[in-house]
Structures are given as structure tokens and as C-alpha cells.
Amino acid sequence: MSSAAHRIAAVCLAATLSLAARADPEQDREAFRAYFLKRFPDVPVEEYVNGIYAIDPEARAQWQDIEDFPPYEFAVEEGEALFGQPFANGRSYADCFDNGGVGVRQLYPRFDLQRGEVVTLELALNLCRIGNGEQPYPYEGDELVALSAYMAWTSRGQAIAVEIPDDPRALAAYEDGKRFYYSKRGQLNFACSDCHVTSAGAWVRADHLSASLGHPSHFPVYRSKLGKMISLHSRFYGCVRDVGAQPFDEQSEAYRNLEYFLTYMSNGLEVNGPGARK
Amino acid sequence: MKMRALCLLAAMALMAGQAPAASAQESPGEAEAAASVTAEAAADAISRAEAARRLAAEHRAEWLETAGLIEQARESAALGDYEKAMALAEEARQQGELAVAQAEREAEAWQRRVVR
């Protein structure tokens, strides 16, 4: 082959790799969904909002028993009370959200063009507090999880509809989350996708690994083993720590972008949070 | 079977015999010299480990145990156990360097895992 042909081949290869790396988010979502539908052909797509219980029949039976007396109900009630409590200036959370904050969970996280960053529901709640002269809640505390549980509750049945506006910063945030999701990290050298795509359904110690499709639909969740409600970012924190990597803070840019990518992958599935998990 | 047991006993006897002989060869002066070198080396090793950890953190790739190993190294150095401090710092440095190598590898490798 001539040197010119080599150069042309190299340019074509570079263009192909570049195109592959910057695939259209909607193409990504369709491929992501198709992967799991092919992997678990007997599982209807709408079942993925139930996480591991979509693909593990034995665990599902236990979970359904738990759902008879949902352990997250206390958080929903606490969240509703907090949500209705006016700030010192007389305004409230309802003033910060569309539709008074009812039935809007499915729109988060969203890319805020003014701030130039991904805003999750928890961050939006704290921005609302700050904007009304209140101190932000700690992200590891119970209050934001309760507020988030209540807002998810009011959004049950709504299809997740995360948008990526036509803005290079929004696409960059999505790409950053995608890169985080597929990158190996930590002493165990694991990527999120190693467990929740490649090995979804496989045993990990005494449990099965869940599929990533539908993951964000049911958060926050009550975790029986911890005896408390946890946020999606708390789950990210735990996963990153479990593979031997230094976890990032909840609501860090890394986790907000990860949530942006992961939730976009579940667009079209219904919000069914809050949930209960082992 | 008897032959294997015999060989094992012989090896154990040799190891037991050699260990005291080695330590008996080290004079008190040599031990002091080793200790002073270890003190300086421990401080350097901790600095190198911290630099490697910081670089890994800049790559968003720091491993879970690295900061703890450095902290333990500092504590050992403060207690005068420089040998232990240096061993811990060396382990931390290696972790930091492996984490950076992992991040550099993943700069391209992650794309091969994308579901398409």
C-alpha cells in the first residue's frame, strides 16, 4: 500500500473512532435498551424499573412481600411535610418548580443552561433553599432524601424524559457521564458497565447483579441492610468504594454527569420511586 | 512421600539455621546507620507517595486505600518506625502510579465497552 493510501486509511480510522466516541445520545439509548432486551428476552422492557427484581424471580417474591408494607412510606410522609413547610420568607419549594413541584421527578436531572451544569433534583432543592435565604441541606442527610422520596412518589407512572439541549456543554456533560460509566477504576479495575451490563444477572456473592436499564427510576430507596433511605448518589458512592476506588462526594460534578447519562439511558421508562431494596 | 518429607525438614532446618546467622553478622554500628538512612528515606518516600496520590486524584482515579496508607506511613514515621513508614509509603506510591496508569489506559479503552 502506498503512503498516501496509509494516510487515507489512518484518517478514516480516526474519523470512525471519533464518530464512535461521540455517538448520538439517542443512538446510545436505543442500543442500551436493545442490549438488555436481547440479553433477557423474557423480561418486558417496562419491568426494568424494578431493578434486580425484574430478572431475579426468587428475590422478586421477597421484594413483593416487603412492598405490602413499604418501608419508604415514612420518608414519603416526612418529605411531604418538609415540602409543605414554608421558608422564612413565606415562599416554598413549590415556587421553585414547574407544576408546584408535583409530578416533575421524571424531568431530572436536567442541564441548566444558565449555570452551565447538570442540576439533579437534590441540587435543585438545595438551590431553591439557598435562593430563598435558607441554608442548604447536607447531601448525606435525611431531609433531602425525604424530599426526593416525596417528589418521586408524586411522579410515579410518569415516563422519564431527560433532555439534552442543543448546547455543546450539555453534550459534554453527557459524554463525561458516559465515560465515567464505562471506565474501569479502583484496585479491582471494574467499570460500572462490567457489573451492570456485561455481568448483569450474574452472581456476586449471594446476590445477582442488576441491569443498568431502569436503575435511576426507583431512587431514593430504602435499603434493608442499612435500615435507612439512600439516594442514587449514595449508591454511586458505595459502588465506587466497593471496586476499591476513592469515592466522590454526593452531588459532585462526576456523579451528576453520571446520573445524567444513566437516566437518559432509561428515558421512556416510568418513574416508580421511592423503592425498597435489600 | 518419605523423600518429600525429608526434603521439607532439611529446608526448614537450613532456614532456621541461617536466620540467626544473618542477624548476628550485623554490627550495632551498621544497625544505627541503617536506621538513620531509613529516617530520611521514609520522609522522601512519603513525599513521593503523596505526589503520586495527588496525580491520581487529578485523573479522578485515586484508589481507596492510598490516602490511608500514607496516613499510616506518617504515623509510623512519627513513632520512629521508619522502616515501616517507608514500606507503607512505597505501597502507596505504587498504588498512585498504578491508578494513573489505569486512568491513562482508560482514556481510550472505555470506548471499547460502549454498548452499540
Indicate the topology.
The complex is a heterodimer of chains A (278) and B (116).
Chain A (H helix, E strand, L loop, with lengths): L2 H19 L3 H15 L17 H12 L4 H12 L25 E3 L4 E3 L1 H11 L10 H12 L14 H15 L9 H7 L4 E2 L2 E2 L12 E3 L4 E3 L1 H11 L10 H13 L9 E3 L1
Parallel strand pairs in A: 5-7
Antiparallel strand pairs in A: 1-2, 3-4, 5-6
Helix pairs in contact in A: 4-6, 5-6, 7-10
Chain B lengths: L1 H23 L3 H31 L7 H13 L3 H28 L7
* Amount of beta strand of chain B: under 5%
Largest interface: A-B, 30 and 20 residues
- Beta-strand percentage range of chain A: 5-15%
Outline of chain A: globular
Give a quick account of the main beta sheet of chain A: strands, pairing sense, barrel closure: 3 strands, mixed
Distance between the termini of chain B: 58 Å
Could you tell me the number of beta strands of chain A?
7
SS field, number of helical segments of chain B: 4
Taking all Cα atoms into account, the compactness measure Rg of chain B is: 21 Å
CATH architecture of the largest domain in chain A: Orthogonal Bundle
Helix content of chain A: 40-55%
The rounded Rg of chain A comes to 20 Å
Helix and strand composition category of chain A:
mainly alpha
Biggest sheet of chain B: strands, sense, closure?
none
Helix % of chain B is over 70%
The CATH homology group name of the largest domain in chain A? Cytochrome c-like domain
Number of helical regions of chain A: 10
Poorly predicted runs of 5 or more residues of chain A = 10-21
